[in-house]
Write a structure and sequence with these properties.
The chain has 499 residues and is α+β, with helices and mostly antiparallel strands. The chain contains ten helices and 23 strands. Helix 2 packs antiparallel against helix 4, helix 2 packs across helix 8 and helix 5 runs parallel beside helix 6. The longest helix is centred in the middle third of the chain and has 18 residues.
Amino acid sequence: MAWTRICSTIAFAVAAVLGCARVEQVRPGSTGDAAAPAGAPDAVDVAPMADAATERWVAPELPPAPDAGPKTDATTTSNADAACATQSAMAETLPLDLYVMVDSSGSMAGETAAGTTKWDAVRAALQSFFRDPQSAGLGVALQYFPLLQPGVPATCTADAECAGFGPCDKFRTCFGPTTTAIVTCTTSATCRSGETCVLLGQCPLSGGACAPIGATCLFGDPCIPLEGNCHARDRCDVSAYATPAVAAAVLPGAAAGLANSLDQRTPDGLTPTGPALAGAIQSAAARAAASPDRKPAVVLVTDGLPTECTPVDIPGIAALAATGAGGAPPIATFVIGVFAPDEAAIASTNLSALAAAGGTGSAVVIDTGQNVTQALQAALNQIRTKAVACEYKIPPATTGTIDFRKVNVQLTGAGGAVTTIGYVTSKTGCDPARGGWYYDVDPATGATPTSIIACGATCTQFRAQATTRVDIVLGCATLIITLDESARHRVSGTRLCRA
């Protein structure tokens, strides 16, 4: 096989890699320097460099596809693929559908530094986001958590008051002769030696919590029982949260209904994050199945960590987010938290675990000392951009049927230089330094892809290049990047060059 040098002038490629790599284009069924099948495009040749990593670009092993039809004049910029291209189109991002799951628990009635409640600040930010002209075309479904059983009182002092949704849960604390702090408990077995688990009370005049019931508070008022909560008042069934309060519809037409729903909601209840997130992901997946030409994502807005229902632990809820992110199509979970300044650090750690599992990196945590409405709207604007930046529609073939073995993604840099981005088969094949792209579903399984997704490193490059153009080119054998293990360890010291 002959070798020549090809060089790239794209700025981000130079920044990402250093040297020159040996590149070999091999087709299915070929070995080493065996001749390519008749009619195959000429091989791309690169001069070998000392101790360079070996990267193999091969055509994907996909089922035979119908003939794409006669070739038409290519519309690509001048590049090595122009001779074989039958069609080219500027990549178009998928329209976005968001399932917004909003925490409306009782703690949302707490105040921000501006004097408004957290709920009022969150509501104002969401309404502004829905009415923003830049949100036009965005699909939105809205639901709240917790959802409440009808006819069950908000508080209780006895099980009988819970209308069959009890028992009446009451807060308890460990108490003994040397107790100086409130330590919640369910039984005395969890308390220190000499302490018992007793009902937690409140001082009506002095303020604050107290124990035991009947004790005298600071100003002489008696310690009275705190009201309890009916155990099953907040719903834990995933199906309830999978049905939106406002069904998915496209903005700006949907804005009025969304705003009206938010106006009618008032904070109440605890925090069943697990079933709420599971329901949102389930509903987003159903929406995606019905509208495969749109990209689904979940936005979780909360002011508290989970307090009830299963799973109630962060790892368990993160597993739900990971399942959604690993689905076909993937459902990303974005997380926004609103917390008091002294709660923000621990909240950030826990909520970021959910965001990372959901494929979106870190949570955005807003503390109540900020302008919550402004900060939340900025976070929503960021999600609107981030969620769609790196997934693109596959254009329909102008003639015949798309051969998914002959689809390529091309990047045109600020100086006009063109680079073909390598295909990596699936998300797990993405190289952390070199990136690549893959289909939303694997055509080798017989499924029909509708979009292509850029790997993390490539997505970062796309976003960083304000003048970058991404094109999807049909008709040329797909280039697949595969690296052997030894090459993976040296890839940061290599550079691909195109003349």
